[in-house]
Amino acid sequence: MKTNTPGVSKDCIVVANSAAQSGIFASTGDPINAGIRAYFDMINSRGGIDGRKLKFIHTDDRYDPKTAESILSSYLNENKIFAYVGHFGGSIVMQTLDLIKKSGMPVVYFGTGVGALYNEHAMDFMSGANCYPIQPVYITEGRAMASIAIHDFNAKKIGILYTDTTIGHDLLSGINRTLKEHQTDSFSEIIPAPEMLEQSAFLKSIRDTVLSMKDYDPDFIIIAAGQESFPDIAAALAETDTCKTVLTSYVNTVVTIAMRLIPVIKNKFDIYSFGWLDYTSQRHMAALNEASDWLGDYAMNGYAHCGWIGAHFLCEGLKRVSGKEITWESFREAMESSPIENPFGGFIDYADGKRLGTEELSLHKIDYENPFGWSEIFPLRNVVMFRDRRCQ
After folding, report:
1. How far apart (Å, rounded) are the C-alpha atoms in residues 278 and 210?
2. Which residues are within 8 A (CB) of 195 and not within 5 positions of it... i.e. 6 or more apart?
3. Distance in angstroms (rounded) separating the CA atoms of residues 229 and 260
4. Residue 132: closest CA among 306, 279, 313
5. Could you tell me which of 67, 105, 58, 125 has the C-alpha nearest to residue 86?
């Protein structure tokens, strides 16, 4: 079928990205790209999509925002790619997002949760209609945090400790949206970004902020912070005997953080966090086994799974265009036509311009006995309360 769409010929669809394959973030970029390639290899081995094979090209951006912007501009000017997949890193995405929107080119899977990706009704390119986030967007997660606090923990007074960072402000934005809807009492305190202070001054600032929170006497605390700050904030809660149940972001649900905190918080208070991937159900285990057959050395690498997921969503959209002319607009219509299932998670619905990332999250708790540091409390479910409804 003849087409004038960039990167699409009668027998090939060209997809690209830039991602760090040198420098400190190569350990992220390498497996993400390996996951994308492996998924495309699987699809191509089965004849491609509507007779077209997937071709993946990549340029190393060294995790430098200016370099990433230059690479994207070059790809767009050459007019030889259909889409980006696996665009990762908050600073990279923020540097390139305006150009992405102006171009109209589809971008599937962002390896970040920055709030700029959030839109409840993106109806044109400049509002992000050509952007398809998959992993949790921090504003969406913030809404889930407040919902869980209210509906599962019956919180009446919520204390919020948030960092003066993108993740902190984005999570707070989502938290406050839901708190406002439910008219829940809350008190928020800001903590400086760690790079703004020397270590001793940073830790003192955390302690002072926690003591201010203690005076408020919340019955539940949300820590809206990333891995660079969360452990120190949680430790300060324990040291000041501010012993309330804590909920934090999915980015902190890692074994290294759990093992660091277990000796500090044990028998004082519980820490909960989210997850967005699941490998335990029969359906997801089958998907994991299929991915492992193609991923080789990256079979159990979480970043490779993210690349696999991104490629899966792109291909699901393309399959829906089968038999029609492939254009950026027909791809958008296909992506919005019905929810798409994450092979290791829930469904994402892009209908009516929803660009929220996943709304299905699982809840985990630091577990002193679990070798992975965390145990699942409830499996994936929609925990975001956009209207007055309760979790089922």
Report:
1. 34
2. none
3. 13
4. 313
5. 58
- Tell how far CA 33 is from the center of its chain: 17
Which residues, at least 6 apart from 312, have a Cβ–Cβ distance to it below 8 Å? 39, 342, 343
CB 93 within 8 A of CB 117: yes
Q: Is 7 left (phi over 0), alpha (psi -120 to 50) or beta?
A: left
Q: Per-residue pLDDT tens for 270-279?
A: 999 999 999 9
Chain centroid to CA 371: how far? 25
Predicted confidence band of residue 38 (pLDDT cuts 50, 70, 90):
very high
d(CA 97, CA 114): 11
pLDDT digits (tens, 9 = 90+) for 276-311: 999 988 889 999 999 999 999 999 999 999 999 999
Strand ranges across the sheet with 131-132 = 53-60, 12-19, 83-88, 107-111, 131-132
Q: What would the two tokens of residue 122 be?
A: 């993106």
Whether the model pTM is above 0.90: yes
Residue 158, exposed/middle/buried by CB under 10 A (0-12, 13-18, 19+)?
A: buried
DSSP 171-201: HHHHHHHHHHHHT-EEEEEEE--GGGS-HHH
Which segments of the chain does DSSP mark as H helices, in order? 26-45, 65-78, 90-103, 138-151, 166-182, 199-216, 230-239, 255-265, 282-295, 302-320, 328-337
Backbone angles phi, psi at 195, to 5 degrees: -75, -10
DSSP, collapsed to helix, strand or coil, labels residue 375 as strand
pLDDT of 237 over the 50 cut: yes
The count of residues in the chain is 392
